[in-house]
Design goal:
The protein is an alpha/beta fold. The protein is built from 17 helices and 13 strands. It has a single domain (about 80-415), classed as 3-Layer(aba) Sandwich (Deoxyhypusine Synthase), CATH 3.40.910.
């Protein structure tokens, strides 16, 4: 009795391209003259005849621009460089980020929130990029680490930071009273002087109450602004620029910085200044809700990740999940980060993952870009490109509208409880 051939044997044979069974049941070796072989023969024939080669570009996957960069000769503008040479990998993501920011996020009806993590202000990014973005109306509100705001204040007080060598001995630096942030060096007295400034202003009467971190930073910005004017040093501080432009700055962890440490120290002496995180959570949610209910859109520009990223994105779950108000998520998502998604950390979480939380509107997911790059590289390029490609926007001065936005949030919350 003939042994039955298993189906698996037939499948294995077909997978190897060895035999195929005709409709009459006879085994024949498959012909080599398939579509790919025909293409190969045609290419060889064109080459032999000296005919110009052409590529079949009918595929929907071949609709992107050709890789045909301009030559870099030193005469190119930032727009030429970004659009003409940033064609693949993270250079392409940076090009997409620049174009998303200028072509959609800077529309008049979009409210742009920005987050800051990593030691950006010590590296001068506050002066080179953040202040110009604020003054041009390109950033409407900010969530930052306290450390960025603390180190930003050094410049507003006329104190200096210096370029250094990251390979220097930290033991020797400590002995000589020099503090290091990677390759940024500064005198230990810079910290002491900045601490003294904050302790002095926090004892002023207007600080003797509970307030949001936006109120706290606004008041601090006023005093930094006065010091800049007294010193005649011009606009050096992000806090000062935000104060002048009415851009509210929040911090998601008020105690996690030297500013918070000084607030805590003064409380031991009876100082009444308290930064209330409840106010921060509700005020930031009210900014996003007001942007949507006013017929506009909400955009997030995330530099780094960490707690400020979550604090920015949690505004939508706060609106939808906790307060029960009907909403869909942020409209535009742009992140610059060096964090990977596969480690499970929030810093590397993708916009697609954020959709599952209600943080990002799923209908707007195509308007999302993640650029895996150091913010100190990306932000200056983004800032220069935006100023070259987009005119200034009128300042929204959201700080001045906080009461009205909170009123709208309360009203919708009451309706949801209905």
């Amino acid at each position: 009795m003939a042994k039955r051939k298993s189906a698996g044997t037939d499948e294995a044979g077909r997978a190897r391209g060895g035999f195929k069974t005709s409709r009459h049941g006879t085994g024949k070796r498959a012909s080599a003259a398939g579509p790919k072989a025909a293409q190969k023969q045609a290419a060889e024939a064109r080459e032999a005849a000296g005919v110009k080669h052409t590529a079949a570009e009918q595929s929907r996957f071949l609709k992107g621009g050709k890789i045909d960069p301009r030559r870099i000769d030193g005469r190119e503008t930032i727009v030429d460089l970004v659009e003409g040479t940033f064609l693949a990998y993270n250079a392409a993501r940076l090009r997409e980020a620049c174009q998303l920011f200028t072509q959609k996020m800077l529309d008049a009806d979009v409210t742009v929130g920005m987050t800051l993590t990593g030691a950006l202000t010590p590296a001068g990014i506050g002066m080179s990029a953040l202040i110009p973005l604020i003054e041009s109306g390109f950033v409407d509100w900010i969530i930052s680490t306290g450390a960025n705001l603390y180190h930003d204040t050094h410049f507003g007080l006329g104190l200096t930071m210096h370029r250094g060598n990251a390979q220097e001995s930290d033991v020797v630096l400590r002995e000589e009273g020099v503090v290091r942030i990677y390759d940024i060096f500064f005198d230990y007295d810079v910290l002491l002087s900045t601490d003294a400034f904050f302790r002095k202003v926090i004892q002023e009467r207007e600080f003797q109450r509970s307030m949001s971190s936006a109120e706290f930073h606004y008041l601090c910005g006023k005093y930094v602004r006065e010091r800049e004017k007294a010193l005649g040093i011009g606009q050096k501080s992000l806090l000062s620029a935000a104060y002048a432009a009415g851009v509210p700055i929040y911090t998601s962890s008020p105690g996690d910085s030297s500013i918070g440490m000084n607030v805590a120290a003064l409380s031991l002496e009876g100082n009444k200044c308290v930064i209330d995180p409840n106010l921060d959570v509700n005020e930031t949610a009210s900014i996003v809700l007001d942007a949507k209910r006013s017929g506009g859109k909400s955009a997030v520009l995330i530099c780094g990740g960490g707690s400020p990223k979550n604090f920015m994105l949690q505004t939508e779950p706060q609106i939808q999940e906790v307060l029960g108000i009907d909403e869909k998520g942020h409209d535009f998502f742009l992140q610059i980060t060096d964090a990977r998604p596969d480690t499970g950390g929030l810093s590397g979480a993708t916009p697609a993952e954020a959709v599952s939380w209600g943080k990002i509107d799923p209908d707007r997911l195509p308007d999302a870009v993640v650029c895996y790059l150091d913010s100190t590289v990306a932000l200056p390029i983004l800032t220069s490109y935006a100023h070259a490609r987009h005119k200034k926007r009128p300042l929204k001065r959201l700080y001045d509208k906080r009461a009205a936005m909170m009123k709208r949030l309360r009203q919708e919350f009451e309706k949801s409880r209905g």
